[in-house]
């Protein structure tokens, strides 16, 4: 059974049809790539699936349950972790607090715990901290845990987002251009981390990426989005050879 | 620190004093203050007389100095007679300050530093409640002795403590959550009126609220109930603001809450059953210093617990990037609502305390002026910080009292100071600092001594 | 309610609303440029009224009063308004320089606090220099009352409404026709466009404060003519209400500010007869001092259903921290 399934999703911004008749199926452990020229609607697809916008038409099912129209925090709580194309970090918070925050839906000590510091609270917070540090280690920035996020280099900030997305225990991990603006060195590291996450945790990943080389290497299947419509879907080899894709997309950009 | 490092060696008296007093733990300072108030209690009156001061200076001598300055200004501007002998009061007040406060504090803090550090180190190994109780007990003892020396001190201290609670409760909303709420005086008013309704209505014969309904010898034991009742009513009122406000983002809350403030004030002005514009007077004198100290302490403790929990940190996330917070499972609406209602609850409690300290309330006390005052405290002290709220409330309250003799000039000096703070530290003096009691109580390493 | 009675109140409402509208304009203009409210604006209105008082007293001394006057009263009035607008503009400019420019990159809340504090300083300075008494505003023109079909209208009311609307139209012309006005609008639309238009942000900010303050001064003088007692705190209640009007009109919308100003005046004036009617109809006894309560409840209700005000653009940025 598909882990994430999208049926006939369409979305309008005012009169603009940003996404039309979009379908998707992600099986457990699969890495799906979403490519397309600037302004094609890739980020909009992410925003629709994570509940930031409500789709005008269509259904979204996560693990067989419909999540269309739920509030973003509910959707995230059910297992959709994401990163953002333009970093969305909390500027006054430490790295560790970022990852802890993503456990919000899991804490259950309630207001009593919050105000009066019950034993349950300290137990849960300690557990969350332990897990958060683990996740930071996993993405390779364990040593930065107690720093503020603003002072970090760009690559590290991206990893904070990644660790934060992992903290919601995602069934599917959404990555929106995780390597944009990175140095070649940071890029290689990020690719290794993504591969490692996939191998160690068996995560299903939905990846938007501009660097085709990376998409071709990582993904099992690739969708090509142009003007909100999927014009081609297939394995990397199929996509690479698809004349439509070459015309709409590859033709304009050189493959790195 | 290595003593030979030239770069770190600073010169001058302040630096020397600073070096001398580095390494004194909180416990040492508290003992120093205790010593100072004990000194004042024994020799304060005599010393004041010897120095030619009319009576014991009430606010560390600052008030005495500003009184003299006020006299001088009056003499210059309004041509009133000025007695040059008054000038002596300035050095006298400074001597008083030094002999009674600075020297004992410095001496005890310095000489007792080693012992205090050792005690702090021992207590550091224990469960937090014991050292906390010791420190807080010492603090209360000091304040109690200090305040017992004059009624003026007592009421100033009470009002300052209440201001701390009020400021912190607004800091939850304006600092931690980053919204701009203007309705705090309104919540205070609700708390003040409702708790007065409870106490005056039930236990006091009153012109406005009628005969006491429950004459009972131990009636003062119900005071916490009255306060909580006031706080809950304030929370309910806050719900009315929160429901429409948090649907839309931006500075919407600022506007809705401002309109709410106008409405609530004018509502109280028009409710003849609650005394109308004249308000309610004759609250029982139940807000004794220990009561206020405990309530404010509980407030600080629980608010600090809240803002350091993941629930509370969620407010920071909402403030810094609401969308990201939602995407990371934070129920932002719930978080904002909770924070707003909690802020209003404590504002209501502060209002209830205030009503029973000044023992009269009327709608005019809870208007735009009060708003400006509490906003000033929050932003002066520092956003997103318990320390900041304490610093802001204490400094603005004490400054307000100390500058009282300057009359109207006070309202130029305080705003100017606040403007300067806003220009040079836009988020306030001690913003974004976590309040950690255990950290504060830790022993300090003395200079020249290695850990 | 008879038609006459209604018309009578309508005229009062127009006059009352003129003050709100003129002051609200200042709030809205600054907002459209800097995305923040100048909370000292109400007190600039007060300062404007006092400057008007000073200017008119000086002018009256120069030209003389009564039969011996060199020029008729309305000339003095016009001169007073123009000179005071000019002088008050400088007050606005100083406020911008001292209070707002150093905080251009600071959180907006800090700027709001600074504005509040400048307001307090202005009030206090007034008390300090003028002793805090209420001062009488000289009646520059003779009051005449016309009876038009049973409706009593004074020449002052007409003048106030006409002058206010005239100023609003002049502002409209300025904003839509002049190069600076265009730059202002471009700026309100988008920060980025401005360098293209070739006018630096600081110039525009200064100009906005100057114009807003000048309009507030005009409102102050017109207010002094009809309610001839000035006091140092007159800007507080008026300022906050005009601020509410600016919000009601829609943040940053000039037309919205005008219309909402008149609307607020209308609501405030009409609640009293409204309460009377309700009392009569339902045999109730609601006090007419509920005016503020009812007026603000209406405003609140409107804002709840139209969060962005009457003419405002949806706006979702948060207070910067
Ligand atoms: N909230 C919104 N309101 C209106 N239009 C929007 C909104 N978000 C996106 N759009 C529009 O939808 C279209 C698709 O934008 P989107 O950000 O999804 O593109 P993208 O494929 O992610 O591009 P890029 O590669 O640059 O990230 C664009 O034309 C954009 O202007
Ligand atoms: Mg995108």
What does this structure look like?
The complex is a heterotrimer of chains A (256), B (451) and C (321). Chain A is built from 10 helices and 10 strands. By secondary structure, chain A is of the alpha/beta class. Chain A has a domain at 4-79 and 170-250: 3-Layer(aba) Sandwich (Rossmann fold). In chain A, strand 1 (4-13) and strand 2 form a beta hairpin. Chain B has a two-stranded antiparallel sheet. Chain B has 2 domains: 3-145, no CATH class; 151-438, Orthogonal Bundle (ABC transporter involved in vitamin B12 uptake, BtuC). Helices cover 69% and strands 1% of the residues of chain B. Chain B is globular, with a radius of gyration of 24 Å. Chain C is mainly alpha-helical. Chain C has a single domain, classed as ABC transporter involved in vitamin B12 uptake, BtuC. Chain C has helices at residues 3-34, 41-63, 73-100, 108-130, 155-177, 179-189, 194-197, 201-226, 234-249, 254-282, 291-305, and strands spanning 135-136, 145-148, 151-154, 229-230. In chain C, a hairpin with a 2-residue loop joins strand 2 (145-148) and strand 3. Chain C is globular. Chain C starts with a helix and ends in a 16-residue tail after the last helix. Classes of the chains: A alpha/beta (256), B mainly alpha (451), C mainly alpha (321). Chains in contact: A-B, B-C. At the B-C interface, helix 10, helix 15 and helix 17 of B face helix 4, helix 9 and helix 11 of C. Adenosine-5'-triphosphate is lined by residues 13, 18, 36, 38-44, 85 of chain A. The site of adenosine-5'-triphosphate (ATP) has 11 residues of chain A, from helix 1.
């Amino acid at each position: 059974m598909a882990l994430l399934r999208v049926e006939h999703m369409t979305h309008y911004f005012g009169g603009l049809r940003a996404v039309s008749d979009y379908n998707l199926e992600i099986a457990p452990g699969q890495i799906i790539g979403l490519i397309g020229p600037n302004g094609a609607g890739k980020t909009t697809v992410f925003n629709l699936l994570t509940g930031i916008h409500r789709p005008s038409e269509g259904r979204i099912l996560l693990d067989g349950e419909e999540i269309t129209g739920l509030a973003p925090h509910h959707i995230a709580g059910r297992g959709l972790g994401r990163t953002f194309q333009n970093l969305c970090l909390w500027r006054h918070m430490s790295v560790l607090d970022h990852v802890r925050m993503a456990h919000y839906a899991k804490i259950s000590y309630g207001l009593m715990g919050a105000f009066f510091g019950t034993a349950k609270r300290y137990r849960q917070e300690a557990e969350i901290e332990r897990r958060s540090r683990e996740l930071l280690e996993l993405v390779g920035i364990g040593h930065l845990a107690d720093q503020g996020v603003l002072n970090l280099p760009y690559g590290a900030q991206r990893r904070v987002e990644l660790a934060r997305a992992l903290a919601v225990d995602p069934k599917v991990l959404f990555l929106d251009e995780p390597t944009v603006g990175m140095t070649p060195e940071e890029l290689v590291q990020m690719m290794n981390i993504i591969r490692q996450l996939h191998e160690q945790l068996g995560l299903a990943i939905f990846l938007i990426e501009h660097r085709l080389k990376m998409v071709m290497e990582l993904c099992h299947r690739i969708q090509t989005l142009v003007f909100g419509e999927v014009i081609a879907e297939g394995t990397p080899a199929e996509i690479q050879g698809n004349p439509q894709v070459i015309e709409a997309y590859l033709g304009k950009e050189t493959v790195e | 620190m290595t003593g030979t490092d030239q770069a770190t060696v600073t010169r001058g008296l302040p630096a020397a004093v600073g070096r001398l007093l580095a390494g004194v733990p909180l416990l040492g300072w508290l003992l120093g203050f205790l010593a100072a108030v004990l000194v004042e209690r024994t020799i304060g009156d005599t010393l004041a007389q010897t120095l030619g001061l009319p009576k014991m200076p009430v606010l560390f001598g600052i008030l005495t100095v500003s009184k003299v300055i006020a006299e001088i200004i009056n003499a210059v501007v309004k041509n009133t007679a000025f007695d040059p002998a008054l000038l002596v009061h300035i050095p006298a007040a400074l001597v008083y300050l030094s002999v009674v406060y600075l020297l004992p504090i410095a001496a005890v803090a310095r000489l007792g530093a080693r012992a205090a550090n050792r005690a702090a180190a021992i207590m550091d190994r224990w469960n937090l409640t014991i050292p906390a109780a010791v420190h807080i007990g010492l603090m209360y003892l000091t304040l109690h002795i200090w305040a017992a020396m004059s009624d003026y001190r007592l009421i100033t201290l009470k009002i300052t403590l209440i201001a701390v609670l009020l400021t912190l409760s607004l800091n939850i909303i304006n600092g931690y959550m980053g919204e701009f709420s203007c309705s705090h005086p309104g919540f205070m008013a609700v708390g003040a009126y409702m708790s007065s309704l409870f106490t005056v209505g039930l236990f006091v014969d009153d012109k406005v609220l009628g005969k006491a309904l429950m004459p009972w010898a131990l009636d003062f034991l119900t005071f916490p109930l009255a306060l909580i009742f006031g706080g809950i009513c304030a929370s309910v009122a806050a719900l009315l603001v929160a429901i429409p406000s948090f649907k839309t983002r931006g500075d919407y809350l600022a506007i809705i809450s401002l309109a709410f403030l106008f409405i609530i004030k004018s509502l109280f002005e028009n409710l003849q059953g609650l005394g109308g514009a004249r308000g309610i007077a004759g609250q029982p004198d139940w807000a004794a210093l220990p009561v206020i100290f405990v309530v404010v302490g509980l407030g600080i403790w629980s608010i600090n617990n809240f803002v350091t929990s993941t629930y509370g940190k969620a407010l920071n996330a909402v403030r810094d990037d609401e969308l990201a917070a939602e995407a990371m499972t934070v129920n932002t609406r719930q978080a904002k609502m909770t924070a707003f209602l909690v802020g209003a609850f404590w504002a209501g409690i502060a209002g209830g305390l205030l009503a029973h300290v000044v023992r009269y309330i009327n709608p005019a006390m809870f208007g735009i002026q009060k708003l400006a005052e509490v906003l000033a405290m929050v932003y002066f002290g520092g956003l997103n910080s318990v320390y900041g709220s304490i610093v802001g409330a204490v400094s603005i309250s004490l400054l307000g009292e100390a500058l009282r003799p300057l009359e109207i000039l006070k309202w130029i000096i305080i705003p100017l100071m606040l403007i300067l703070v806003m220009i040079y530290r836009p988020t306030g003096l001690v913003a974004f600092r976590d309040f950690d009691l255990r950290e504060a109580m830790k022993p300090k390493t003395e200079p020249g001594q290695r850990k | 309610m008879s038609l006459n009675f209604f018309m009578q109140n309508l005229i009062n409402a127009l006059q009352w609303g003129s003050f709100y509208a003129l002051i609200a304009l200042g709030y809205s203009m600054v907002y459209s440029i800097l995305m923040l409210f100048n909370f000292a604006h109400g007190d600039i209105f007060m300062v404007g009224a006092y400057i008007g008082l000073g200017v008119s007293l000086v002018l009256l001394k120069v030209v003389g009063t009564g039969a011996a006057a060199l020029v008729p009263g309305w000339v003095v009035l016009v001169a007073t308004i123009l000179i005071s607008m000019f002088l008050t503009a400088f007050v606005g400019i100083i406020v911008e320089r001292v209070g707002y420019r150093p905080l251009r990159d600071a959180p907006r809340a800090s700027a709001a606090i600074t504005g509040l504090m400048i307001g307090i300083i202005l009030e206090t300075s007034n008390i300090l220099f003028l002793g805090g008494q209420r001062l009488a505003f000289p009646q520059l023109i003779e009051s005449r009352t016309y009876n038009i079909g049973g409706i009593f209208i004074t020449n002052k009311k007409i003048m106030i409404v006409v002058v206010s609307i005239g100023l609003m139209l002049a502002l409209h012309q300025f904003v839509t026709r002049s190069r600076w006005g265009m730059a202002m609008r471009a700026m309100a639309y988008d920060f980025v466009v401005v360098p293209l238009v070739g006018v630096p942000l600081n110039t525009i900010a200064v100009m906005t404060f100057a114009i807003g303050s000048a309009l507030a001064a005009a409102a102050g003088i017109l207010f002094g003519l009809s309610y001839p007692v000035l006091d140092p705190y007159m800007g507080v209640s008026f300022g906050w209400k005009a601020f509410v009007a600016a919000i009601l009109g829609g943040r940053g919308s000039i037309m919205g500010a005008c219309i909402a100003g008149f609307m607020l005046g209308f609501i405030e004036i009409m609640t009293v007869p409204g309460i009377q009617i309700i009392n009569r109809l339902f045999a109730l006894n609601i006090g007419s001092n509920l005016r503020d309560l009812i007026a603000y409840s209406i405003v609140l209700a409107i804002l709840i259903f139209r969060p962005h005000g009457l003419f405002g653009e949806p706006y979702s940025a948060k207070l910067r921290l």
